[in-house]
Amino acid sequence: MNVIFDVLHLYYLPQYLPVLKTLQAASADVHFVFYKQGDEPLNQVCREVIEQEKLTATWVDDWEEALAFYLSQKADWLIFGNKVANLDELHAVSKTVMMQHGIGPKRCYYQNSESPTTVRFIEGQHRLKRLLDLYPDGSFIDTGYAKLDPLFQQLENSMTLESLGLDPSKKTILYAPTFYPSSIECFSKKFAKEFADFNIILKPHFFSLTKKKYHKQRKLLENWATHDNVYLATVSDYNLIPFMAISDLMLSDASSAIFEFAALGKPVVWCDFYKLRWSYRGIFKYRFDRRIDEDIQYFNQVAYRAADYSELVVTVRTAVDAGVKAGTADVIEKLAGSIDGHCSNRIVEYLLANTKSGSDS
Questions:
Q1: Domain match, 179 and 248 both
Q2: Could you name the domain of life of the organism this protein comes from (predicted)?
Q3: Is 12 within the bounds of a domain?
Q4: How far, in Å, are 207, 290, 295 from residue 280 at the CA level?
Q5: What CATH code is carried by the domain that includes residue 199?
Q6: Distance between CA 298 and CA 292 in Å, rounded?
Q7: Among residues 144, 139, 141, 201, which one has the least CA distance to residue 15?
Q8: Dist CA 53 CA 13 (whole Å)
């Protein structure tokens, strides 16, 4: 079986890697396609990751070049982390998969299936039902969320608090905001000082660290990182999973990281306050509402909510003392599916059972 993973962005990899390892165990031929970035340091980070993970990779400039490569390779399966164009052409030579790179509350989670890949692997019966209601002719398989597999396989984590320069005697807060809508710019400049009795790991979204438009976010992050109790993840720290493993509590906003961390049976604080562009405020608030799906209601069921930064100090300490919220496991099963460390096995079993070459596949 020949499989190609499309790596439009580096942050797709944590969802792909557990599946890669299972494919390798099944003796599949696996290849990765990376897209050249306009910023050479980003390309260098990708090269380092390719070497570190021992990936067989091809670089392309854009989608047109990737499409030409896929058409020439005629792989059994092409795996994408988001929706893509030209599916009719691709389906003439290969089968296609969508493995969404996140399980958060953004509406695009559901809208992405407007372009029907051969199959989409999804997480849990709630999402399966909603997708089938929207796209009754679609092919959706509930496998669970492969990104979390390593956390349930008792794998050794080489990352430690000491390796990050943090104090192992302190509780550790993991702040993992998304890039938009984000809570970062609503945080106090004194955030690190106000939580000096905690370690703080800052793991912002890839775009917060790389896109010029988010320079104000970077300025705050870098200011907090000057404190001894803070570690700021770099672009090369692309995988949230190792940070989750060593943290006691997470802060996040409109990110699927809330569901991911809650799945570990650890407390989460939902920062339900955001810095919105003017075009998403006031009479334009409908644009924000249109971006966020109704699934955000489940944040209240798995996370302690802070409506603004002033509530955060008390809410964090409440969450640390109380632990994970009651009923979290049921919600996580609903939104992330089976959390058992075997999601990638279910994915690969399906690929193997449904592999045929050509347009008749």
A1: yes
A2: Bacteria
A3: yes
A4: 19, 10, 20
A5: 3.40.50.2000
A6: 12
A7: 144
A8: 10
Hey, what's the torsion of the CAs at 112, 115, 120, 122, to 10 degrees? 20
Residue 172 has a CB neighbour count (10 Å cut-off) of: 21
pLDDT tens across 57-102, in order? 999 999 999 999 999 999 999 999 999 999 999 999 999 999 987 7
- HSE (CB half, 13 Å, CA atoms) of 255? 29
Residue of 265, 271, 272 lying closest to 323 (CA atoms): 265
Cα 289 to Cα 272: distance, rounded to the nearest angstrom: 14
Q: Which of 8-17, 31-40, 106-115 has the lowest mean pLDDT?
A: 106-115
Candidates 60, 96, 55, 62; CA nearest to 79 is 96
Please spell the DSSP secondary structure of 298-361, one letter per residue.
Answer: GHHHHSEEESSHHHHHHHHHHHHHH-SPTTHHHHHHHHH---SS-HHHHHHHHHHHT---STT-
Question: At which residue do the structure tokens 């075009």 appear?
Answer: 279
Q: Exposure pattern of 92-108 as b/e (b: 16+ CB <10 Å)? A: ebbbbbbbbbbbbbbee
Query: What is the chain's Cα-based Rg?
Result: 20
Distance (Å, rounded) from C-alpha 148 to C-alpha 313? 29
Which residue segment(s) compose the domain that 21 sits in?
2-152+341-353
CB environment 32-48: b (16+ within 10 A), e (fewer): bbbbeeeeeebeebbee
Residue 343: both structure tokens together: 């999601």
Query: Residue 360: inside a domain, yes or no?
Result: no
Q: What distance in Å separates the CA atoms of residue 188 and residue 198, rounded to the nearest whole number?
A: 16
Q: By the 8 A CB rule, do 238 and 10 touch? A: yes
Read off the pTM.
0.84
Nearest CA to 33 among 50, 53, 57?
Answer: 57
Residue bearing tokens 């989750």: 244
